[in-house]
Amino acid sequence: MIYAIRGNYQTTISKVKDYSSFSNADIEKGLRLDSGSTTEYELEYLKAAIQLAENYIADDIVLTTISLTVKEFSSDSITLLTSHLVSVSGVTINGVTISDYDINKYHSTTDLVFNSYYSGELKITYITGFSSIPFDIKRVIIVKTADLFDIERNGYMMQNYKENNVFEKVLNNYKNYYI
Question: What is this structure's pTM?
Answer without folding.
Answer: 0.82
